[in-house]
């Protein structure tokens, strides 16, 4: 998680707990919405989430695992920057020879676009 995302997440959690504190003080959803400038629906969902899980922190989400590790991406970046005229097929082949990781050309194209910009 990047620093910016971590700061956003911690700021969000701070505001969520602030809303919960106002709710525990006996303020209504409308009053909390007016004070914090959150929507009533958002405040309601924060309170319901806290009631169900005793926390307002998001659970980790599932997702497709990355095909390339950070080390593989770094290797791909190095071979890409050494010869900018290499095609994605050539980069894919060299990546497979160098690291043993077999990547489909489309994935290599996507990573190449991210690396070369």
List the helices and strands and how they pair.
Blueprint: H1 3-24, H2 29-36, H3 40-53, H4 70-82, H5 88-99, H6 105-116
Helix pairs in contact: 1-3, 4-5, 4-6, 5-6
Descriptive report:
It is a single chain. Helices cover 69% and strands 0% of the residues. It contains six helices and no strands. The chain has helices at 3-24, 29-36, 40-53, 70-82, 88-99, 105-116. The mean pLDDT is 78.
Core attributes:
elongated, mainly alpha, single chain, 117 residues, 6 helices
Separation, N- and C-terminal Cα atoms:
21 Å
- Helix and strand content put the structural class at mainly alpha
Query: Helical amount among residues, as a percent range?
Result: 55-70%
* Radius of gyration, CA atoms, in whole angstroms: 23 Å
Largest sheet: none
- Topology pattern, helix = H, strand = E: HHHHHH
What shape does the CA trace take? elongated
Oligomeric form? single chain
**pLDDT averaged over residues:** 78
Give the number of helices.
Answer: 6
What share of the residues does DSSP label as strand, in percent?
under 5%
- How many strand segments? 0
Low-confidence stretches: none
């Amino acid at each position: 998680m990047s620093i910016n995302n971590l700061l956003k997440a911690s700021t969000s959690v701070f505001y969520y707990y602030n809303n919960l504190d106002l709710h525990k003080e006996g303020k209504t959803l409308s009053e909390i919405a007016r004070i914090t400038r959150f929507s009533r629906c958002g405040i309601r969902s924060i309170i319901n989430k806290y009631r169900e899980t005793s926390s307002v922190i998001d659970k980790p989400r599932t997702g497709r695992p990355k095909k390339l590790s950070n080390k593989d991406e770094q290797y791909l970046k190095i071979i890409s920057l050494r010869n900018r005229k290499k095609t994605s097929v050539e980069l894919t082949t060299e990546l497979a020879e160098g690291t043993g990781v077999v990547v489909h050309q489309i994935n290599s194209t996507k990573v190449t676009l991210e690396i070369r910009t």
